[in-house]
Amino acid sequence: MTSAPAWRPTPAASSVSGSAVALRDVGFYLRGRINRGLARAINGRRSTAAPPRPVATVDEVLRGDDTPFALSRLLEGRDNNAREAAVARYLEARGVPFATHRFETFEGRGRNFSVDVGTGARVLVLAAHHDAVPGSPGANDNAAAVGILLALLARTPQLVPPSLRVRFLFPACEELGYLGARAYVREQQSLGDVAGVLSLELCGVGDTLAVWDAVDDSSFLRTVGGALTDLGLVRDETWHQVGRIPVFGSDHRAFVAAGIPSYGLTVVPAAEADALRAFVLSPVRSALMHVVRRPAPFDTYHTPNDKGATLQPSSLALVSRALTAIISTVR
Predict the structure, then answer these.
(1) Which of 35, 116, 119, 239 is least enclosed by beta carbons within 10 angstroms?
(2) How far apart are the two ends of the chain, measured CA to CA in Å?
(3) What number does CATH give the domain 7-329?
């Protein structure tokens, strides 16, 4: 991994403490508690297997390939404290300067990590949370996305236009109502330099990209769409732009609340398109199907079956190519 001058750590932030509790935060807190409670209940009913275990040591990952698929093994099977520590150790071992943002609120605590690449005035934020729900190995949610960004770090200095900085953000506690991302946004002195945000979720299974929560038009959204088209992807065939998802969400929503153009980025199987549309756009159906059949990639979502064996290297490679095109295009 390159340790060029283009690496630049983002400013460290102080801990979040003693701040007023906003009504929005209470809502996110309740959402997070319900989310984790459902996961515990479903996983407890479905599996009598032993708790997830790491599939590789951090040293084994460091000695191995630096492909997104190989790097997803860094987090798979670890509990959240170990996942957090593994990201920090990986960056340290690779000589990548990074900033640590510690936070603690009534909802929970953790560490976000960020790395800036480039020296431009405009900032593109690429986010991939490092936590998982209890009882799940967390391969597709969200070790695959973390692996994609870690692999991309080495190539990004050669890709970034002079006017741009790319911020790789690895938030904690996404499964607690985007707590880490909300704490991060709350403590930033200014976000006026942020051109846009993409949060990576479920990026390990499928052949079709989805840019979601794309409710309002923005120049950033048009740039993302143009980059995907220039890559040879066809809208409504090999990539889709989807409106707000009523049940599911991710860290980009913390930035949306701050007025920043922000969207989710996911890869899904084209063969499951109709079933997925019905599943994610219908809150009642989604709740019922949590205990019945769910279409891929949600068939393993938040379950003990979210393992590396279900990941498709071609899916991670597709997301990597898309991000490479987007980085080269944003101004």
Answers:
(1) 119
(2) 25
(3) 3.40.630.10
